[in-house]
Design brief:
Chain lengths: 108, 484, 484
């Protein structure tokens, strides 16, 4: 049965701020103008309200479930199986030169 | 007041597999750009990673070599960030559960300054984890653009993280060298630093003794031991100057410029890092069974520490000599092969020559033992002739020079140059008699108590024999005859 | 011919009553007629399809045909197919011609099936109405004002309108079952890991699973026989013996225990859907099954858990779409970051961006434990509920969707309302269980209602048998939309 853990409600019954949305957009590399950020803030807040239901559940002692099946990783033999397909792969690339993918200058 | 230096290393070693960590593309170095970038390497939509057994075996091998905990279950996680050399927008790495846990490496430190003596130190290894390498950015490919070559993307890396146990540039370099030697010794990495197979990130901080750790700055991507030492020296001085001038050290990632000898902050990663690690749903947990560990253990060569211990106990070598001979696998193999030709009784002779003449000559020619122009067989052949008294030490030096520059065998050189020493008792007695006759006054002086003249007689007799007299025999005969 | 089962079409082909080229042309003609309204296909390439049909005819002529040889199958545009534009419903991949085949595509090619075209879908499979496709909404052939459901809306619409013999779909939170229900067809999402995900463009890797969408359970069994099997290129692909999914089609239902979770019949379920589902259960009782009341106490948390886990995985999976190696790149930008941000802002639609943002947030520093980890823990609770339930019953039944098809634009402004259309299907993905939907009546608006059947792990054959027995006793599955 679900038991409630009141601590969570307090922490997560909050909505996102404009700064939160800006930070997420930057991390996710999504250009957004002020109006878009405001619209996203409103919608995301609604979704996080839905998600907040989850916070009330006491999950102490429950192991997180990452995969549907409890299996181990299979290992591949260390043998070359892939041939050069540069031509085919770069035929669909936005910008290439001399076999290199081109991007705006990277500054280290 | 003195400052204490605290250094920890994160070393990225490229594992010497045939294929990438998550796909069957070749990892060979130096191919045309993107010709080894398969569908997985360029992260086409829909492709998935499958873990390379060779990479896992090499990680286990390393863990065994440093006496570390091998995790029965480890997990791959995604480290999310955008960079053009990172095709998926995340790097598959290990975060919470690395494949190799705590271990240790014993290092020989040669202090860089003063008359301080070499010493031994144990550096603790925190962990080592498997991850994939990124591609390469090629700058100036085209005006204002950067070219991306993904041949290297997906090459398996073992990132080896040390505890902050080093307290000088000398210790950091000694640790890096010992680690470099170890990964090559056990055959998991080719150690080619120019090609980026062994790259060091160095965390440096300073503090006053007894105070908590200072703020560290991380020097990224050092690919030579010389640069590492220069970078640490510069960085330590910079931090001390900053603090002594009332400034504060900010945590930062910095680059070393070998041309100026200075360090500077990286500009591109100004984003506050938020890598959003989470377990990679495309990969299942890596379970390593005891059977798998034992199978890898069976392939492990005798490790440097064990070998060095054996050299001191079996061959009676000094600890210092034994450590020198086990500084690299190639040196140890050269030594072992030579000893097998002359016999264990002459191991000391073998060691003396390797650490002395051979190392000096290698140094002069800027070579390492792997590139030594004399093979262990040629070298052993020469040692055997010293051991059986055919040639004297000075004769051997001549043989050695000839072997080095012209090749061939010791026996042929001895023959051609007539270096065979005279061990015939009669012949030596005759020479001694001649020398004594020619120097009757000196004989009288010697017999009158001037012992120091013994050396003169040795020299004169040796000269008369054209350097070929067996020095041991010559000594004996001289002593006997001069005594009268 | 259009209403024949796959098996009957196969027999007709083998008996040379019709050639594959003729059958393919028949469907191509129907697509030309009806696709302008339904928009079920994003890409049709008659030349390619007919070439495959010709090859199939050769195979049929020499008697080397498999059950699906020569049969035209529609492929969801999430599967990479070599030489075919593969868009995943996104502007980001509008120009992406896949250089390789997904495992599923290779299997169909190997079986000699004809690829009839790529079906429309919600962008990157994110949606429940097919309104998020960059290529415009798909319409429901039962009522063109209504949505077909999503994300495999094009597939469902095409099967219902007889624009293909059968189709593939993928299901991350209900994307096979919900559109199957809304379009009055049969669809099954097998146990996670049964169908390889290699070449299936990832939405949420730990939940994505492909399956067939067809007019009957029997057709689905034939499709599954082709689609399933271990694939070494997908680490999560299960290593199990090949099985015949048609083997239990004729097994009587006597003694079958049907579990009815009380949570699936609570508030939020529309009356007409409830009535149809109850009637279907009554029909099952007539066929010899018994009914058990069960509870899935954590099922109501499936939606919040899903909207943490799926966006988290998606935010990372979609990072590879960065304008560097393939796909869309913004035409104007000032620097690298600007290129990334504009490319992704312009290339992705609103729903995709929204989910990327949710996922980025829940994984970001300081929120991971409260969101992602908490969701993974509740995921386990949800899966355990099913384990308990299957101790009491053989299959679980309930509604697939809370209502029949809604009208286009009806839920447009409120993502939360849209997310709730998957309340009954999501838990199955979280647990990794097989689930299917079969038509079981029509609602108040005359549109189809789906009965959801959930089985225990690897019980697809049993579920298909359970569905088939119902389809022998009823004719809901063979009804076709009017006017086509």
């Amino acid at each position: 049965m679900i038991t409630y853990w009141p601590y969570y409600n307090k922490v997560f019954a909050m909505s996102l701020t404009t700064q939160d949305v800006q930070k997420i957009a930057r991390l996710a590399r999504l250009a957004m103008n002020q109006a878009e950020i405001e619209a996203a803030r409103a919608q995301l807040s609604g979704i996080f309200e839905l998600i907040a239901e989850m916070q009330a559940v006491d999950t102490r002692g429950i192991a997180p479930m990452s995969h549907a099946q409890e299996l181990s990783q299979q290992l591949r033999e260390d043998v070359v199986t892939e041939a050069n397909q540069r031509e085919a792969f770069q035929a669909i690339a936005p910008q290439v030169e001399g076999g290199l993918y081109l991007v705006p200058q990277v500054i280290e | 007041m003195e400052w204490e230096i605290v250094i920890g290393l994160e070393v990225h070693t490229q594992l010497s597999t045939n294929t990438k960590i998550f796909s069957g593309a070749s990892t060979a170095f130096g191919s045309e750009p993107n010709t080894q970038a398969d569908a997985v390497s360029i992260a086409l939509p829909g492709v998935l990673p499958v873990l390379n057994k060779g990479a896992v075996e090499r990680a286990i091998k390393f863990g065994l070599a440093v006496g570390a905990y091998i995790a029965p279950r480890s997990v791959f996680a995604r480290k999310n960030y955008f960079y053009p050399d990172l095709p998926k927008g995340y790097q598959i790495s290990q975060m919470d559960l690395p494949v190799v846990g705590a271990g240790a490496l014993t290092i020989q430190v040669e202090p860089l300054s003063g008359n301080a003596k070499p010493y031994e130190k144990v550096v603790r290894i925190t962990r080592a984890h498997l991850e994939e390498d990124a591609g390469k950015s090629v700058h100036g490919a085209s005006q204002g653009l950067t070219g991306i070559d993904l041949n290297r993307a997906g090459t398996p890396l073992l990132e080896i993280v040390s505890e902050p146990d080093m307290s000088s540039a000398a210790e950091a370099v000694a640790y890096a060298k010992a680690l470099h030697s170890m990964v090559r010794w056990i055959g998991i990495c080719d150690g080619n630093m120019q090609e980026g197979s062994f790259r060091c990130d160095v965390n440096v901080s300073v503090r006053k003794p007894g105070e908590p750790l200072g703020t560290r700055r991380e020097i990224k991507n050092l690919n030579s031991f010389k640069f590492m030492q220069q970078a640490i020296d510069y960085e330590v001085q910079w931090q001390i100057d900053t603090l002594e001038n009332g400034g504060k050290v900010q945590q930062a990632t910095i680059l070393f410029n070998p041309d100026t000898g200075e360090t500077r902050s990286m500009r591109s990663k100004e984003d506050a890092h938020d890598y959003r690690y989470f377990p990679d749903p495309d990969l299942l947990p890596l379970d390593i069974t005891p059977a798998m560990i034992e199978a890898v253990r069976a392939t492990l060569p005798e490790l440097p520490q064990a070998k060095s211990g054996r050299y001191t106990s079996e061959y009676g070598l000094s600890a210092y000599d034994a450590a020198s001979l086990t500084a690299s696998r190639e040196m140890a193999e050269f030594f072992d092969a030579s000893v097998s030709m002359v016999g264990a009784a002459h191991a000391k002779l073998c060691a003396n020559w390797l650490i002395g003449e051979v190392s000096a000559q290698l140094n002069r020619d800027g070579l390492d033992i792997a590139k030594c122009p004399i093979s262990a067989t040629q070298f052993g052949g020469m040692l055997a002739r010293i051991a059986d008294g055919t040639i004297s030490n000075s004769g051997a030096k001549e043989v050695f020079r000839a072997l080095w520059s012209e090749g061939g065998t010791a026996d042929a050189i001895i023959e051609a140059k007539g270096l065979k020493q005279v061990s015939d008792g009669g012949a030596i007695e005759k020479i001694v008699a001649e020398v004594m006759a020619a120097n009757a006054d000196k004989v009288a002086e010697y017999r009158g108590g001037k012992d120091k003249l013994f050396g003169f007689f040795v020299g004169a007799a040796m000269k008369a024999s054209q350097g070929k007299a067996n020095p041991v025999q010559l000594n004996e005969v001289l002593k006997q005859k001069l005594a009268g | 011919m259009l209403n024949l089962s796959l098996q009957q079409q196969g027999l007709a082909l083998r008996a040379r009553k019709i050639s594959s080229v003729e059958l393919t042309q028949l469907y191509l003609d129907r697509i030309s007629t009806h696709n302008p309204v339904l928009n079920a296909y994003v890409t049709v390439d008659a030349a390619k399809s007919l070439a495959q049909a010709q090859a199939a005819d050769v195979r049929l002529a020499v008697g080397a045909a498999d059950p699906l040889t020569g049969i035209p199958i529609a492929q969801k545009d999430i599967f990479c197919a070599q030489g075919w534009r593969t868009t995943c419903g996104s502007k980001m991949l509008d120009n992406f011609i896949s250089p390789y085949d997904a495992h599923v595509i290779s299997l169909f090619n190997g079986a000699g099936a004809v690829n009839l075209g790529k079906t429309n879908m919600d962008e990157f499979a994110m949606g429940s109405s097919n309104e998020t496709s960059y290529f415009g909404p798909v319409r429901n052939p039962w009522d063109i004002k209504a949505v077909p459901g999503g994300s495999s809306g094009g597939a469902a619409s095409a099967v219902a309108a007889r624009l293909c013999a059968a189709a593939t779909g993928t299901d991350t939170g209900g994307s096979i079952r919900q559109p199957a229900a809304l379009c009055g067809i049969t669809g099954i999402k097998p146990t996670y890991g049964t169908v390889s995900r290699y070449g299936m463009i990832a939405f949420a890797s730990s939940l994505d699973q492909a399956g067939p969408m067809a007019r009957s359970a029997q057709d689905c069994a034939l499709m599954l026989n082709v689609m399933t099997g271990h694939d070494a290129r997908d680490s999560t692909s299960l290593q199990r013996d090949k099985e015949d999914y048609a083997r239990d089609l004729h097994r009587p239902l006597k003694g079958l225990r049907i579990g009815l979770p009380k949570e699936f019949f609570a508030e939020g379920l529309s009356q007409d859907v409830a009535a149809c589902v109850q009637a279907a259960v009554a029909e099952y009782q007539k066929l010899g099954a018994t009914v058990v009341d069960i509870s899935l106490p954590n099922a109501k948390l499936a939606v919040p858990v899903y909207y943490v886990l799926a966006p988290a995985e998606a935010s990372s999976n979609l990072s590879r779409f960065d304008g560097v190696r393939y796909g869309y790149r913004a035409p104007d930008y000032t620097d690298l970051t600007d290129m990334y941000e504009k490319t992704r802002a312009q290339g992705f639609g609103e729903e995709v961006k929204r989910r990327i943002m949710i996922g980025t947030y829940v994984l970001s520093h300081g929120y991971y434990d409260a969101y992602y980890l908490q969701a993974q823990k509740i995921r386990r609770l949800i899966a355990q509920d099913f384990v308990e339930a299957f101790k009491q019953c053989d299959v679980i039944m309930g509604p697939t969707s809370p209502s029949t098809a809604f009208n286009l634009g009806e839920k447009g402004d409120d993502p939360v309302q849209m997310y709730l259309s998957d309340i009954y299907t999501i838990a199955v993905n979280l647990a990794g269980l097989p689930g299917m939907s079969i038509p079981c009546g029509t609602g108040a608006n005359g549109l189809p209602v789906g009965l959801q059947i959930i089985g225990d792990y690897f019980k697809e054959a049993q579920m298909l048998g359970v569905a088939h027995q119902y389809q022998l006793a009823t004719d809901w599955h063979s009804r076709a939309p009017q006017g086509l």
